TrEMBL record:
The chain crosses the membrane at residues 21-40, 114-133, 140-158, 271-289. Keywords: Membrane, Transmembrane, Transmembrane helix. It comes from the Eukaryota. The keyword Transmembrane applies. The lineage of its organism: Eukaryota, Viridiplantae, Chlorophyta, core chlorophytes, Trebouxiophyceae. This is Uncharacterized protein.
Length: 295
């Protein structure tokens, strides 16, 4: 990716100029939301507040596309991206719709039943939505705060999702238990986990893991790597032109990310990523336990 703007601008401005001038993400978001709206409306009875939320999201994306076409300021585009992320679950509207869908969805049987059950849990977790909304570019510092808030709010509804009929039937609970055991085996983390876990807690742990990994950490790691690389390019351009390199707390963050990236190779990077995912899994289990105890 080529860095837009010139070296006299702040890096935050150049980052937004580089990532906020393309309407492709907005178009994909609009088409995806319209298709989901149509398919869900044919399968379940969406309550009025659900239709209102979906209409609001479609309107907001349309406004973003218009602003993009008319060359609106990247700062306004970033504000729109933040608003879209914060409203991505519509104060519970999306979760309510998902719960209605789960109540009318059958258990996964037959060939590849476990894989299809995993896909069902992925859809139930909202991790796909959390991943998609991160494609709407924001600065790393703001993206981290906004996305963390959205993910934590989403995780609060995991117990409700796990009470859906498609996830509470005995066969579904058995499949969830298999996924739970697979993640336990894959993590190899030294953090202890109780041997006996309730089905609802196992379900919440799996959903939480999908939200934390796919919906938060992995996309932010990718953005951090890209943004750090472009920041180093920005700093180099300033040095070549005799301009003092940019400083501040984000400069320290990007330098640390760059140093970490240089220290990792083809062997250590997969190992570090595997350890990180293992820790995220244990964190998901702990959060699920706490929610079960508090509930």
């Amino acid at each position: 990716m080529k860095l837009s703007g010139d070296h006299t601008q702040r890096f935050a401005q150049r980052w937004l100029l580089t990532t906020s001038t393309n309407c492709a993400v907005d178009m994909v978001s609009l088409v995806t939301l319209l298709l989901a709206w149509l398919l869900l409306a044919r399968r379940i009875h969406i309550p009025p507040f659900g239709h209102a939320w979906m209409a609001t999201q479609c309107l907001q994306i349309t406004v973003q596309i218009v602003l993009c076409r008319r060359g609106a300021s990247p700062a306004w585009r970033e504000l729109g991206a933040a608003t879209f992320r914060l409203n991505s679950f519509g104060m519970g509207a999306a979760n309510a719709i998902t719960k209605l869908w789960l109540d009318q969805t059958a258990c996964q049987t037959g060939r590849l039943a476990l894989a299809r059950h995993a896909m069902l849990m992925l859809l139930s977790s909202g991790a796909g939505t959390l991943l998609l909304i991160q494609a709407k570019a924001m600065r790393l510092s703001l993206a981290l705060a906004v996305q963390l808030f959205v993910v934590l709010m989403c995780m609060q509804t995991n117990s409700t999702m796990c009470s859906g009929a498609a996830l509470t039937r005995p066969l579904a609970q058995q499949q969830t238990h298999q996924l739970f055991q697979l993640l336990e085996l894959a993590s190899f983390s030294p953090l202890p986990v109780a041997a006996k876990v309730q089905p609802a807690t196992e379900c919440a742990a799996v959903l939480g893991y999908l939200q934390l990994s796919i919906g938060l950490v992995l996309p932010l790691l990718a953005q951090a790597a890209l943004e750090s690389s472009l920041f180093q390019e920005h700093q180099q351009q300033r040095r070549q032109c005799g301009v003092r390199p940019e400083s501040g707390y984000m400069q320290w963050v990007f330098d640390a990310i760059g140093s970490l990236g240089e220290a990792l190779d083809r062997v250590t990077f997969p190992a570090a990523l595997w350890m990180l995912l293992g820790l995220l899994w244990k964190l998901s289990v702990v959060i699920a336990y706490r929610q079960a105890e508090g509930g």
